[in-house]
Protein 1
Amino acid sequence: MLAAEDMAAILDAVRQRFTLEPGAEITVECNPESVSREKLAAYRAAGVNRVSLGVQSLDDSILPVLGRLHDAGGARRAFGEARAAGFDNVSVDLMYGLPKQDGGTWARSVEGVLAWEPEHLSAYGLTLDAGSVWAATGVEGLPAEGAVVEQYWALARAAAARGFEHYEISNYARPGLRSRHNQIYWRAAEYLACGPGACGFVGDVRYSNVKPVVRYCATLEDGALPLDTSERLTERQRLGERLILGLRLADGVPRAWLDERVAGDTALARRIAAWRERGILADRGDNVVLTEAGFLVSDGLFVELV
């Protein structure tokens, strides 16, 4: 939605105030209907070097249900425009477990996107968050849990066959092209909040900015930081978060972190032993990792580690 000249102004302001690493990853998220070759080329000239396209599906009967404004042809054209504009690092978002999405329609979306040869692929299962319209009103045609699991495995197999690394629960990348941005979160590193409703993490403090745009701008114009909420994490919280975030990555976490969390908790120690026996948690060198099967049940495991 951002005009190219505004994008350039923002990036110029960042360069004036911060030291950027050479080749720093600068990503713009785009919906297929909102891009053109000219706009993307102007983004590229401004310093953007990575594009993430919110495709979600290549099924023209499902996209309107999601409220998407593009069709499958428009998604393919948007990817081509990104290539024509000079982007050699393009990510595509897909969703599985969607209404009326069976194994065949999912496989066609997956194979269609993989045939474009993107550098990165993100795939998320549909969740009905509290407060969303679908959570409140319900939605028809949701696939059964077993079908959703099979869609997950179909993607994992197809991506592996194309040489993608399944480096995080919901993310696949060609070697050396993991999302640097997202890995900051999963490694519990620091990041700054910029913009209405944005969240940041510095030291042991997590904070968020005010969401209403008018109040956000007025606060800045008054010379104050637009902070809304903040919390200081305890050591126990920090350890739990490092575990559950780090285990999202295929690299896993140091075994010492897990040992520290388990110390003195015999019930948790027994559960972890059971996870190893079931093949959902494994040791790899000095790290512990979730297996592909472990990724599938990760939410249930993470509750135990918090």
Protein 2
Amino acid sequence: MPENRAKFFLGVASGPFYGFNGSTEKLSQGMMGSALAHYDGIKAFSETDQTADLKAITVPTLVLQGDGDQIWPYENAAVLQAKLLKNATPKIYKGYPHGMLTTHANVINPDLLAFVKS
């Protein structure tokens, strides 16, 4: 993590995380979590092989991701996850960023509710 944490989080939040580096949308909050939580989260998902865990899940699972995700390309995330899950329903949103749950809640929330009701 860079020496200037505030600058790092401003850069990530105003750029690739929410897709604001290619958009005119307003900047969202980027420093709500602790530095340790952010570090531990990045360490965990970058060093942990979750293949066996995904293969063990048998309940219906909705896998959502935007194809505009600049943090984690959907081909290496949602597409692979859906292949490992026994009962997956993948849904890729055209142009949506990594932080799509915040920037596109008006679209994602109804999709989540419809999946749960199904």
